[in-house]
Amino acid sequence: MTFGVRLERVRAGYGQGDVLHDVSLDVAAGESLALLGANGAGKTTLARLLIGLVRPSAGRVTVGDWDVSGRRPDELARRVGYVFQHADHQLFARTVRDDVAFGPRCLGLPGDGVAAALEELGLSRVAGAHPYDLPAPARKLVTLAGVLAMGAGVLVLDEPTAGFDHESRELVVAALRRRIESGVTAVVVSHDLAFVAEAAERIVVMREGAIATDRRARDMLRDEDALHALGLGPPPAAALGLRLALSGSPVRIAECVAALRGARWTAPAV
Amino acid sequence: MIGYAAGRSPLHRAHPYTPLAAASAVLLLAFAVSTPGAVGVVVLAAVALALLGDATGAIVRPMLVLVLPTWALLLVLHGILGGDPHLVLGPVTLSEPGVRRALVLGGRVTAIVIAFLTALATVSPPRLVEAMTARGVPFGRIFLLVSSLTLVPRMRARAVQILDAQQSRGLRIGGSAAARVRALVPLVLPLVLGALAEVEEQVLALDARGAASGARRTALDPPRDTLGERLVRMALIMAVLMAYAAKFMGRGA
Amino acid sequence: MKPIVRLVDAAFAYPACEAPALADLSLDVRRGEVTAVTGPVGAGASTLLLVAAGFAPRLTGGTLTGTREILAARPGIVFATPWTQLTGLSRTVADEVAFGPASHGRPPAAVRAAARRAMDQLGVAHLAARDPATLSGGELQSVVVASALALEPDLLVLDDPAAELDPAGADALYALLGALAVTGVAVLVATQDLERAARIAQRAILLEAGRVVADGPAAATLTGTDAALIARAAGCPAPLPLDVDALVERLAR
Fold first, then answer.
1. Which domain range does residue A30 map to?
2. Per-residue pLDDT tens digits for A150-188
3. What's CA C162's distance to the chain center, in Å?
4. Residue at A131 is within a domain
5. Under DSSP, is residue B4 helix (H, G, I), strand (E, B) or coil?
6. C-chain residues within 8 Å CB-CB of A137?
7. Cα separation of C78 and C75, whole Å?
């Protein structure tokens, strides 16, 4: 099942005043959205609304036909898979495999997604290892696998690639793309624009608890002025596309490589 | 909640050693006396301390959580199972020496809990660090003491994050008693494992910043200690000594 | 000048692990240079930092074989998780940053001056009066780096120091590391952020499964940047350009 996500005039916060002011946002089923913005702009608050860890003080949040305000996080977990920024708050099983199986077991799912999720993220080799014996980025991959194995229709990922090497990032991108193609909705909070370029079709920029920009990712990632205003620059593939006026307006690495194929190279200047 | 609660009461402003000395005095006095009346006086002293520290609001809940079960247990154990003579209070019959015993033990526990929760609520851990540093206490000892004082608030913050994470993985909190017990493992294990991993990293981090350098640490902003407060602490020590002197002389007579 | 850290045929194994985390390790870390360490997740970059800074096996346990010479008088190290590096004993960010120099028993004025300088370098002077427990991840990471800089280190070792920072903050931090090296500090940084590392590093060490697979000028070693990957896939011959500017220059018009 796939679900869209909708926020209607939502206010939300943590007690002392609202962090989000009157936010409305519609994410269609199968769409992939990246949330950008400075620290404290409200990205994580928005993400936490979707799993019911923050409750709206006004307005309505829906996931498909469910109003989140009537449901506990463990109920929402059937539709929303949330990957936290820091992995160490949830790992507890003796092996990576058992930990990845925990979510599906809580939801009463058969667990046939566990081996697939491990394989997808390159964790099959360490499936029998203790999660705490793995380095921090690998532990984060384990939490991601745990959420993928739950088979939710909406994925919410908070900084999923921080500290990852190129290969791990590729694995996450590929896993995410496969799901988006099958209709899963993705909401990604990330500072990593190269990852955003690979994974998202739409970019929403938050500023001071409100939506400041809502654009196609391809347009935003090629708009140097708009990015500079946020203290950002185009990711390398998009920057090359702009500098060389490459055909097809590439923003992803593969697109850029395709546009450069057949180029002639010179020896480096000494 | 158990731990420091910011405020401007005389205890908050006092040198950190003073509230700690007062709480220790309550502890020692509670064991120096053994009649319900005298224990009652110690409880009143503890309550006075809490009022002086403007801490009643902060400590009432943890106090009740710790003390009420103790009272219930003591009254059942001693009141019902104690020896003759028995008092008849409506439908219940209670052992009179048992009730006296329960009053003494329960009073002691109550006084000690109130006094130490007050000290925890009014002694700012960073000020205590500065005070101990200024007195030349080795860092290892300061760290052990202060990190145990701040243990509850730190664990609490971590527990909230774990609860969020596991609920998001579909863990149901609540429901039947069996379900609650099953939910404990995924909540408690990350708390313990995470705390252990964190301690390892923190040891490295503290060492990296010279905590084990062996030099005498510089106290940057040591809390002021006044003659008046020193006199108060001396008076507390004298009171404790006199109470124990009276106790043992009374026994000898 | 002699390298500040020299490893010759070194190997290191964690306690209770048969397989060594690092093996056949020979490398120099030099003053006035930024040396980047990178490699796949789990290749041993973090362990290499612990060995180079003298923390392993002294605090981690395990066994180190081969030759290790560390000439650093004041090593500073920043670990990957900023929240485990707070002392938990400080009331303000200023006190937290001052912890290192205070540990070494320097006079209060010198301690405060070192802390102020370090906070200025990281752009966190405006946070000086804040309670460290209330900082955001990015603020915390900057404060932790400032805390290491307050030691005025001659060897600065950092493990993925920008993971919590936003892009502007990460740019500023890497620029600062480059500037520190210019003043003569030896900087050793483990990172996956090859774009930023390529901007400042003179040397880079590439690890795989605990062994050095490349050690040389950054321009020849950090060939995993997005620009380099694009250039290679598009048929560019070695040496690969590491950033967009270099790639554009290499294209024949």
1. 5-79+152-260
2. 999 999 999 999 889 989 999 999 999 999 999 999 999
3. 10
4. no
5. coil
6. 41, 192
7. 10
Instruction: Please tell me which of the candidates A164, A237, A262 has its beta carbon nearest to residue C230.
Output: A237
B64/B163 same-domain check: no
Q: Clarify whether residues B66 and B182 are in a common domain.
A: no
Over residues C172-198, the pLDDT tens digits come to 999 999 999 999 999 999 999 999 999
**CB–CB contact C230 A162 (8 Å):** no
Would residue A247 count as lying in a domain?
A: yes
Contacts of B194 in chain A (CB under 8 A): 88-89
Examine the domain organization and report whether B85 and B149 are in the same domain: no
B210 to chain C: which residues are within 8 Å by CB? 100-101, 103-104, 151
Q: Which of B129, B154, B204, B216 to mutate to test the interface with C (most CBs of C within 10 A)?
A: B204
Q: What are residue A56's DSSP bridge partners? A: A12
Interval C30-54 mean pLDDT: 94
Tell me the pLDDT tens digit for each residue of A62-93.
999 999 998 999 999 999 999 998 887 889 89
* Nearest by CB: B217 against C77, C81, C105: C105
> What's the rounded mean pLDDT across residues C113-131?
95
Calculate how close chain B gets to C23, using CA atoms only, in Å: 23
Q: What angle do CA A87, A88, A89 make, to 5 degrees?
A: 95
The runs of H, that is alpha helices, within chain A are 43-49, 73-76, 96-106, 113-120, 136-148, 166-181, 193-199, 217-221, 224-229, 236-243, 253-260
User: Which residue from B162, B172, B185 is facing A90, i.e. has the nearest CB?
Assistant: B162
Q: Domains in chain B: how many in total? A: 2
Q: What is the pLDDT of residues B20-61, one digit of tens each?
A: 999 999 999 999 999 999 999 999 999 999 999 999 888 999
Residues 6+ apart with CB under 8 A from A143: A83, A84, A87, A90, A91
Residue A51 belongs to a domain: yes
Chain C residues touching A237 at Cβ < 8 A: 226, 230
Beta-carbon separation of B218 and C100 below 8 A: no
Check CB contact under 8 Å for B168 and A82: yes
Chain C environment of A253 (Cβ under 8 Å): 226, 229-230, 233
Residues from B contacting A (CB-CB < 8 Å) are 158, 161-162, 164-173, 185-186, 189-190, 193-194, 197
pLDDT tens track of chain B, all 253 residues? 688 998 999 999 999 999 999 999 999 999 999 999 999 999 999 999 999 999 988 899 999 999 999 999 998 888 888 777 888 877 888 888 888 999 999 999 999 999 999 999 999 999 999 999 999 999 989 998 888 888 888 888 889 999 999 999 999 888 788 888 888 889 999 898 888 888 888 888 899 998 888 888 999 889 999 999 999 999 999 999 999 999 888 765 4
- Interface of A to C at Cβ within 8 Å reads 38-40, 85, 134-138, 162-168, 191, 193-194, 231-233, 235-237, 239-240, 243-244, 253, 256-257, 260-269
Question: Do the domain assignments include residue A189?
Answer: yes
Distance (Å) from the alpha carbon of B196 to chain A's nearest alpha carbon? 11
ipTM: 0.91
Q: Are residues B27 and B83 in the same domain?
A: yes
User: Any idea what DSSP says for residue C34?
Assistant: E
Q: What is the DSSP letter of A203?
A: E
State how far the Cα of A124 lies from the Cα of A268, in Å rounded to an integer. Answer: 42
* Tokens matching residue B62: 């943890």
Quick one: pLDDT at residue B182?
83
Both tokens of B151, joined, read: 């243990």
Measure Cα distances from C33 to A126, A239, C186, C200, C250 in Å. 36, 29, 5, 9, 27
Residue A157, min C-alpha distance to chain B (Å): 12
Total domains present in chain A = 1
Q: Domain range for residue B107? A: 1-131+221-253
